[in-house]
Amino acid sequence: MKAKPAAPRPSRARARARSTSIAAFVVLAALVPTTASASGTQEVEAELPYVCALPSGQLPATVRVAAEFPARAEVGEAFTPSGVTTTVELPEEAVADLAGRGAAEVRAATRLDVGVAQNAATARAAWRGGAEPVALPESGPLTLVTRGDVPSVAGRGDGDLTFSAGSLAIDLTLAAADGTATGTATADSGSGSGSGSGSGSLTVDCTLAEDAPGQGLLATVPVGTGTGAPSGSASPTGPAGTSGAPDDGQPDGRADRQPERQSERSPKVLENTPGTAPDRDDVPPCRYDEQHPPTDVSLNAYVTGYANVKKLKGAAYLPPSCVLIEQGVPVPGPPDPNYLIFDTVSYANFHYQERRQTPPFEATFLSFDFAPVKATMVLEQTDTMRIDSRMKMSMTDFSTTTDTYVRAPLVLHVLDLEVNGTPLDVGSECRTETSLVSEDPDPANFPGDHLVLYGRGELLIGQPATGYLLLSGGVLAGEATIPAFTGCGTDGEDLDRLLTASVSGPGNLIKQVQGQTCAIAAPVFPSPTNEGQCTEDLQPYEIPVAEH
Predict the structure, then answer these.
(1) Is the CA virtual torsion 372, 378, 383, 389 positive or negative?
(2) What's the CA gap between 410 and 405, in Å, rounded?
(3) From CA 167, how far away is CA 195, in angstroms rounded?
(4) pTM (2 decimals)?
(5) Dihedral-angle region of residue 83 (phi above 0 means left; psi in -120 to 50 means alpha; beta otherwise)
């Protein structure tokens, strides 16, 4: 099929500047059992002093960073710090600041600038984390614990690779006692006491204290054949907060000396793309048809990901699934003197063989830690998925942030079940009693059972977008409760209790990845000047890769 001429359209980098939201979705079911942690790792937990700018002034804070690093790496070998947790303890004065804005609970997202150095070369990585809402304490400090995945890193030569903490930004979403967002939270821009980020939110900027041990050193990973220093025994060439951008390779005071050779020596910070994308022949079609004709605002995309099952200490994999999206029209949001705000509501549906569901997928797990169980399942919608996004553009530097909440009513339907190789007839109606359930940040306006996934996208002028945005996709995350199962079994055999006891329960973390969208009304086909967004028959060009 010959490609149709593409309408004029920005390149992918420019397209990422568009700020609204798209659905990314979740699977939650049986799982592959966890494996023991790899040998040759070093566990790191650093406690560092910070100074944070809050409305009441500059306040001290304690930040603890925990992660696992390899004990050693080869030259050019990419590795990813795992189990990254950032714990921020804000003083009692900060609690008073937040309570004074009408907040009873907060949801935190952290952005830690990490300097990566090897010999005289430097790079920078952004470590991001998210957390569920926590209530403000009646007295004492506020402790926020965020978790998330971080970029991979590779050393370019022999020598210790060091990781050092730098500046920290804490994005706080504020909610009143009834769960609704608080009023506009803006700090006096001339006071240096923190930056407001619009209605019901506050961004707290923190800097590493001057007396921080080791200038914020987190870990040291020996690379290559040289003798490596133990973790924590060496400091990078400069403070983490002043290290160059990835691959700029310009150490302090040497910006004009051999830039190309220096860049070649800089540690390489990589986007996380574990695994490989499936072949197009192995994923279901994702196109509009006569039963689902596109409109001028129609998009399609593939989504994939993992979800933990807390009871069984493992993760389930959702293979790429097709989603059809109707993008909403941005409308002005609440007034804010520091930001231009727009709200967008979009809607989406899974699309598989004319049904609102995922394709069938298999997962294997150990029930009660000893019985191997294989299940074939689908996720089925009970209603249309809703996507709420809020874009905020700074009136000072024109940077934008987009916060996205995906609300998806999905039941888990079990089609087939085998226990220790023996098929069990679950019948045709084996499913969860209700939709998978998350705690909604705005229950008054969004009652009922549904999943909630959250993501944030950021765009600075002249830099690539990061996080989650509509056209470029990205990662959304959340936490869900798996309800009890019902309708499982035939001929008087009740399997509901087996599945409920094995799988159902709260605290199941979810991470979903959405690929680049294809805009049907103005498709972008692969060319020497553009990355492909659509295939010739108007399917999504990108098939995303799931990330743990």
Answers:
(1) positive
(2) 15
(3) 15
(4) 0.59
(5) left
Under DSSP, is residue 291 helix (H, G, I), strand (E, B) or coil?
coil
- pLDDT tens-digit readout, 315-373: 778 889 999 999 999 999 999 988 999 999 999 999 999 899 998 877 766 555 556 77
Cβ-based burial of 40 (10 A; exposed 0-12, middle 13-18, buried ≥19): exposed
The strand pairing partners of 473, in sequence order, are: 469
Nearest by Cα to 19 from 332, 297, 342, 301: 342
Return the CA Rg of the chain.
Answer: 24
Residue 220: CB atoms within 10 A of its CB come to 25
Report d(CA 330, CA 390) in Å as an integer: 9
> Which residues, 6 or more positions from 439, have their beta carbon under 8 angstroms from its beta carbon?
132, 133, 452, 479
How far, in Å, CA of 64 to CA of 41, rounded? Answer: 19
SS3 242: helix
For 5-18, b where at least 16 C-beta lie within 10 A, e where not — what string? eeeeeeebeebbbb
Q: Looking only at Cα atoms, what is the longest distance across the chain? A: 79
Two tokens at 490?
């035939």
Q: What is the pLDDT of residues 442-499, one digit of tens each?
A: 999 999 999 999 999 988 887 777 889 888 899 988 899 999 999 999 887 888 988 8
Only one residue has tokens 């999206």, namely 325
What does each C-alpha distance from 444 to 175, 180, 388 come to in angstroms? 12, 7, 15
Tokens for 141, please give them: 């400090």
Tokens 């002034």 belong to residue: 57
Neighbours of 133 (CB within 10 A): 15
- Nearest Cα neighbor of 380 from 432, 310, 440, 320 is 432
pLDDT tens-digit map of 231-269 = 443 333 333 333 333 333 333 333 333 334 444 466 777
- Count CB-CB contacts under 10 A for residue 188: 10
Helix (H/G/I), strand (E/B), else coil: 301: strand
Residue 35: count other Cβ atoms within 10 Å of its Cβ: 7
